Amino acid sequence: SGFVGTRLCALLKAQGWQVTGCDAQAGADVRACDLRDSESVDALFAAADSPTHVFHLAAMTFVPAANKNPAGVMEVNLMGTIHVAEAMQRHAPEARLVFIGSADAYGPPQTLPVAEDHPLNPGNPYAISKAAADHYCAFLSKASRLDLIRLRPFNHSGPGQKGDFALTRFARESAAIALGQQAPEIQVGNLEVARDFSHVDDIIRGYEMAAIAGQRGAVYNLCSGQATVLGDAIAHFKRRAGCDIAIVPNPEFMRPVDVLKVAGSHARITADTGWQPERGTTALLDDLYDYWYAELSGAGAAADAR
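Above: the chain's sequence. Below: its structure in token form.
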């Protein structure tokens, strides 16, 4: 029921998959399950109808929240993965586990672009939890306990993403300023950093293509292959807003140590599955701005009601 999971379920259903999801609360085609509770996870798989693939996206993903709750992020991201894998071995041993890790596990790049053989050197509790789960999945694969592939997506965003992730917040506040709902200033951290951003729709296509055509035991990056400077992104939102916006540095958004540039390589997944990014940075930024403008103006809520 999260930002990416919701879009992935919609894509899979449109492609003809039969999909059952799980989340903390039950809903349409969604079963209640607490991944921190091994008995809850076991019951979920015991009731499942011979799944062929398991897409494991559930995680605590916001780095500042993970920093404040390191035990919690380990419980969800690492122990949750272990519980899923153990339940699959008991109840769905023939299914393929698609583990969604994170490129944050690489830590500061030693070389660019970052390929899958780059050492894992996580630098915060979130990244540590993802690296640990990634290593555990590698162990399961090498021990032939599960048909498993590991995916390491780089930064991705798109319409519907909430919270204070950088691009989402910049788009939301720019739209709010354009609508006269916020004073014309945006507080920022280091705008000189460059990150590899992808459109969420490209990422979920990669999840499906890797699930179908990925090599058993393989690990794949999912990324645009290009680095976008945050300052350029916020300049794009300012142009879309069509008004003067003051950019105000805020020490709270500054990291003690910041990596200036991150860009990945998707050569391996392209070779094995044919996946390539189709939506560029401009499309991503425009989709984000349009989404928040509609949401804040009431058009989004009206469309949902219809």
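The longest helix spans residues 70-91.
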